[in-house]
Amino acid sequence: MTNTEQTLTVLSGEEILKNLSSKFWQEYKKLKDLNLIKTDGALDSIPNIKKKTVVNLENFRFIAEVQRIDNLQESNILKNLKEIGGFKHKSAGVADVFEYENQEIDYVTSPDGMHRWIMAYLSGVSQIAVNPQDVHSA
Predict the structure, then answer these.
(1) The pLDDT of residue 1
(2) With 80 as the cut, is the pLDDT of residue 122 above it?
(3) Which member of 65, 86, 94, 104 lies 3.0 to 4.6 Å from 38 by CB, making a disulfide possible if both were Cys?
(4) Nearest 5 degrees, angle CA 5-CA 6-CA 9?
(5) 38-58: per-residue pLDDT in tens?
(6) What's the Cα-to-Cα distance from 69 to each of 16, 103, 107, rounded to whole Å?
(7) Residue 98, strand partner residues
(8) What secondary structure letter does DSSP report for 35?
(9) CA–CA dist 58, 79 (Å, integer)
């Protein structure tokens, strides 16, 4: 039996932002310029923060083979930002994350938090609540 290794592409949120279309950035700029969205932090605080795990946005990574990076729902991101007026922790809920056994790896990966991360980042939010699921062995 052959042991095959799978290579995964781990991307930062900032790298994913580069995949957003110019149309997306034009629409985002309009919302921002018209003050339709708050871009200097969340509209609320993380609910029940003492009982939650909170991670800084810069400590998130996304696995390209798991996330829908080639199918970003740009219109939904813009629609949600506009309807909510920015980022709201209460409506965003928590993102599932996986940590690493190797303590030298100081980031988490999220299988379901990419759109939430983008909305938080564009709203000037620095941390979001997470739900640690398990650990990666590598």
Answers:
(1) 46
(2) yes
(3) 86
(4) 140
(5) 999 999 999 999 999 999 999
(6) 7, 27, 19
(7) 109, 134
(8) T
(9) 24
